[in-house]
Each structure stands twice: as structure tokens, then as C-alpha cells.
Here is the input.
Amino acid sequence: MFTGTSAGWWFLISAGICEICYAAAIPRTEGFTRPWPTLYCALFIGLSLYLLALAMRTLPVGTAYAVWVGIGAVGTAIYGITFLGEAASAGRIACLLLIVAGVVGLKVFSPAMA
Here is the structure.
């Protein structure tokens, strides 16, 4: 299906989505005192790190890590705005767009590893 760098990017996007899943659920754990939300978080933390490690087989570590964090940060902020009623001010949206621009720039300007 996907090979080389292409697979790396798919692994990385999937890792970022897993990061959003666990970050959005952390408040439901109530300090990791509730078993089911805590288990959900642990599962997605592990899956996210595993997929990130797979992505780093073909992508530079700096690029992979920065993109992973960017996907998680933007996705979690959008989740907060959409479902938790967090502020969606023009300044906040502009900052999220800057993160997206950085992630896209890293994708465009990152060479494949040899």
C-alpha cells in the first residue's frame, strides 16, 4: 500500500490523531483516578508513540516530532473550541494557523532519510 517516506507520513498523521484522542480524554480521567478513561488514555498514548516511532524510520526525527506535536496541539485546540466551549478568538485562530503553516512547511521542505 504505502512504502518508504509515504508510509512514514501516514504513520505520523495517525500518531497525531491518536495524540488528539488521548489529550482530549485526559480531563475525564480526573487525575488518572477513573479507570476507564485512564485506560483509554494509556491505550492511545502507547499507540501514538508506537506510530511516531514507525514514522521516524523514514522521516527525520526533528520533522517527525514537530509535526506530531503540531497535529496534536491544533487538533486538541479545535476539539476544545468545538466541544468544550473554549475561546475561538481571532488571535487564537491566527496562532493555530501559524502552527498549521509550520507543519505544512516541514512537510514540504523535509527530505526523505537515506
